[in-house]
Structure formats: C-alpha cells, structure tokens
Amino acid sequence: MSITRSTYFDFTVYTFLLISTIFINKYVLSVLKFTYPTVFQAWQTLIGAVILKYLTVKKKLDVSCLDRSSATHLLPHCVFFVGAIVAGSKALSRLPIPVFASVCNLPLACTALLDGCAGVGPGAGASARLLPVTAALLVVGAGVCTIIVDASLPFADSGYSWLLAHVVFLTAQILHARVCDPRYTEFDKIYYSNIFSVVILAPSSLYLEEAFSALHFQHRRQLRFYAGCACSGVLGVLLQLWAARVRACAGRVGVGASGEPGGAQARAPALARLLGSAASVCVFPSDHQLGLAAWLFVALNLLAATCIPASAAAGPDHAPLDDKHVSALNV
Fold first, then answer.
1. Residue 145 Ramachandran class (φ > 0 left, ψ -120 to 50 alpha, else beta)
2. Model confidence pLDDT, tens digit, residues 248-259
3. In terms of Cα–Cα distance, which of 70, 19, 18 is closest to 281?
4. Which of 155, 157, 217, 242 gives a 20 to 30 Å CA spacing to 131?
C-alpha cells in the first residue's frame, strides 16, 4: 500500500510542477508578452543555480567535482540544455500549449523507436516491445501531421521552427546521456547545466540587446509579471529535480509482469502533458485557434504517448539519482 501511495504522490507532485511551470511561462510569454527569451531563461536558471547551490551548501545534495575531463563530458549536455530552454520559450510564446506538449513527445517516441529497432527496448521479448513501438509510430506520425496541417508560411518565422529546434535539442540530450560518463548523476547535469546557462545567457542578452529592451518593459500588471518570473524560476528547478526523482523511482520498480518498466511513474511525463493540455483549453481559451484536423492529431499524439514508458528514453547507460539523492528529495 505504501508503494501505491508513494507512486500517486510522486505523480501528483510531478503533474502539479509540470502544469504550473508551463502555465506560468505561457502567461508571462504570451499574455504579458515578455518576448525576451535570453533574459527570461537567464533569470530562471539564475534562480535555479542559487537554489541548487543552497542545497549543496546545506549538504542536502552532493555534486561531483568538475575537472577538465568531466567538463568535456558534460559540455554537450549543457549546450543542448541551453538550446532547448531558449527554443522552448520562443515556441511556447507563439503556439498553444496542447500543440507544444504534443510535439514535445517526439523525443520520447524517437528514442523508443531506436530502442525497438536495436532490440533494447522495454521488456524481455518482441511482444513486450510491440505496444511502445506502435505507440511511438503514432506519436511521430501525429506530431508531423500536426505541424504540416497547422504550420504557416514562412515556416522559419513561425513557432514551429523553434518547436522543432526544441525537440532536436531534447533528443540530443537523451542520446548524449547514453554515452556520457555514467559516474555523473542527473543532479550533476542539472547543477552544471543551470550554471552554464547563466554564464552563456547573461552576456548573450547584452550582446543581443534584449537586456536593454527588457529594462523598458512595462505592463499594467507589473506585479503579476514579477511574481510570474519568480515563480517560474522556482518551479522550473523543482520540476527538474522532481523529474529526476520520478525517473529514478521508475527505474527502481523495474520491469513488471506486463513487461513494462516503471509502471505509472514511467508514464508520468506523458500523462502530465495530457492533463495539462486539457486544462489549458479552459485557462487559455483564446489561444486555441486550431482546425479540427490539428486537434485530432494533437489528441492522438497525447493519448498514444501514454503507452510509451519514459524510463525507456533514459536507456540502459543513463545514470539516475542514487539512494542518497532520491531520499534527499523526499518531503
């Protein structure tokens, strides 16, 4: 019974953090129209770096020391992280949340297809891999069709170009995690990625003159803007930490009788995106100007993604948080 309660608790917290983070970011980027991604993400990752540094100082979480060799191993992950958050901000500011969430299932689907082709997917036999591979094909097909039927021309100036860049960076992160030195935990990657983002995005905002433009940003709901920026930073780093916990717990569950790893925890990301997309229709009603065909493909994508265990995307060589890291994230 305790395992069931823990599973529901992990899923509930993860869903709350994911939906809250996406909704607050959407509110700041689209409703308040703060269209300066380098400034916005530099602020978010600065808050994240401060929180993570506080946790390390208080010995709540440990981080591996960074030398020249480890920096070489982690640098690609940090670069992919920066590219993903900047492109994601640009895409989220221009596209409805259901479209954004559904296309973000593509990295999970692509890695599931790669595992299926290589014969290293979840489960012991081919029959156990049939459902994830079939669902992955549906996710990829529906995602591509959503872009085709809804994308406007010129494509380079649309939110879909940024969304595809976001997907490419996320997929690169997943694949790089499989070849990265396994001694580095997910917490190490989260910690150094946030610091690297601040180092890169802060001067970039000055070079691109977004920082100077942001100084003149005024909105009649200025207090809500400040509150939204602060909440997005705090919730963003909490989401990163809790997502690592969910993946670690899903890996601990292992492969069950059905041949599916991790149970409900392995499906938490897809289920959370599905619930968030449904709720966004009520929260942002004016932002959902999609055709019927696009809605059908989005729904098919979101539903099919729930059949793909997210633990499969991590791969066999992905280093999750260890016992000390997972226990430190208990509340």
1. alpha
2. 776 655 544 444
3. 19
4. 242
